[in-house]
Amino acid sequence: MPSPNSRQSWLPLVVLATGVSMVVIDATIVNVAVPAILADLRLGATDVEWINSVYSLMFAALLIPFGRMGDLHGRRRLFALGVAVFLLASVLAALSVNGPMLIAVRAVQGVGAAMAVPMTLAIINQIYTGRQRVIAFAVWGSIIGGMAAAGPLAGGWLVTEYGWRAAFWINLPIAALLLLGSLRVPESRAGHAAGADLAGLVLAVTGTTGVVFALIEGQKYGWLAPRRTADLFGLRFESVSPVPFAFGAGVVALAALVVLERRRERAGRPVLVDLTLFELPSFRYGSMAAVIVALGEFGMILVLPLFLQSALGYTAFRAGLVIAVLALGTFLAGGLVPALSKRWSPRAIVRAGLGMEAVGAAGIGLSLTPGMGPWRLVPWLLLYGAGIGFATAQLTGVLLADVPAHLSGGASALQSTIRQLGAALGVAVLGGVLVAGLGSAVERGLADRPEQVRAGVARVVEESAGAAIPSIRDPAIHAAAVEGAAEATRRVALITALALLAGVGATLLLPRTPASPDEPDEPGEPVAAAGPDTGGRDPKT
């Protein structure tokens, strides 16, 4: 491959980082575009919910199968195919004329994203070593954190100026350039397996889909008690929530997957998920930290824009401007990581980043008041974003540091699945805390009102996650609702800070690693191919 100082050697990183940017920004832009989509296509609430849910479900469910497919059949090839699928789905989404069509193509978009995203990490882990790998993972981590925060700003501008279809048309030129750029990315694979693990594929998809569906839809359908009733021929029936059944089926399928894969590994047969990865301390404890990091980061990005728009009355674009400060901190920290890595070990950088996130989240929580101005949040968002830039970038490197090259695709997909589960858990847990806190806080704020009024207002605010607050006309009730939103969001931010502190504790279990040398290490295996497949076992052990 080209020398480390040549511009050509960094071209693959530019292509891969742009691919991740396209996927991350698209997901956040669609969140902002939902109200415009609802009005234009005249969709119901269920349709709108599935526009986002079906994408997340397909993405999470297919990461592991596609990760293994990339190892076997070519990582660059699968990345390019994923970009092409994403491009086609974006065109169809922009041309959608009704809800079912848009939901179907969003599912296809999820398939394309599941092909492309894990391949970016696998290829980076394969072609960069030493200082180059530190820089590459810093860029990748900053992209993930920064674009998730900058997306709402870009989405607010695009939807305001050009309509919701622009959220999908914007992917066309980017994807076309990515397909051209992918020709300059080195190909790598692990060889061909002796057979397919079809049973593992079914269990992995079923298990991941069931768990992620339950986490995403738990608030809507309820975890224990049924949430809805129906009248039929004068008789009243209670609908049964699908969430506990989906979650139970998912857990059983994942447990069966573990048993199956261990049996296949002992028999020397090809496996879909190489469970020996968890025997590596860096991967095992890094995965624990990744779940906590994703829980905290995605939970905060969910609740803070809701508070700014519903309680403080900001437009989507103005709220995006505030959240963009977080992205600025992420990008600035990502630029500092390579220099910092000369003095600090990756574990120390991860720990410092998580500590900064925890302090930033606590500061955000303690700053939230009904009449606050946006500048009060700026220093805490900057600190929180810088923590993401440090933690996310280096945690990825720590996780994959000891993974054999021939397992890069599967390991990258597995860690992406773990992060996706952590993000879904964050949305479920912190979203649940927010909704429950909204109802109770609003009721306390209306203690002098009749019980029927208290319960009615609390129910409306709770069921809308605060979105109904701007429509409340009574000044006293509106003030109580805003105060309740501030209290509930403050609670979520402080719980996020505690979760991130737990993540700091998880980093104590990570193996000690030295600071990166100034010169790149010699690659341990060829870049283009990594020898024959060994059924998931590291030949060096």
Task: Offer a quick outline of the entry.
This protein has 541 residues and is mainly α. It has helices spanning 7-41, 45-73, 75-94, 99-127, 130-162, 166-169, 171-181, 198-221, 243-266, 281-310, 316-340, 346-367, 378-400, 408-445, 451-463, 475-507; strands spanning 229-232, 235-238.
User: How far from one another are the termini?
Assistant: 27 Å
CATH topology of the largest domain: Growth Hormone, Chain: A
> In the CATH hierarchy, what is the architecture of the largest domain at level 2?
Up-down Bundle
Helical residues, percent: over 70%
pLDDT averaged residue by residue: 78
DSSP helical segment count: 16
Order of helices and strands: HHHHHHHHEEHHHHHHHH
Pfam families: MFS_1
Domain Major facilitator superfamily (MFS) profile: 12-514
Transmembrane segments: 12-38, 50-66, 78-97, 103-124, 136-160, 166-186, 198-216, 243-260, 285-308, 314-337, 380-401, 421-442, 492-510
InterPro entries: MFS, MFS_dom, MFS_trans_sf
Explain the overall architecture.
The structure is a single chain. With 541 residues, the chain is mostly helical. It has 3 domains: 10-187, Growth Hormone, Chain: A, CATH 1.20.1250.20; 198-271, no CATH class; 274-512, MFS general substrate transporter like domains (Growth Hormone, Chain: A), CATH 1.20.1250.20. The protein has helices at 7-41, 45-73, 75-94, 99-127, 130-162, 166-169, 171-181, 198-221, 243-266, 281-310, 316-340, 346-367, 378-400, 408-445, 451-463, 475-507, and strands spanning 229-232, 235-238. The chain has a two-stranded antiparallel sheet. It is globular and about 70 Å long. The chain starts with 6 loop residues before the first helix and ends in a 34-residue tail after the last helix.
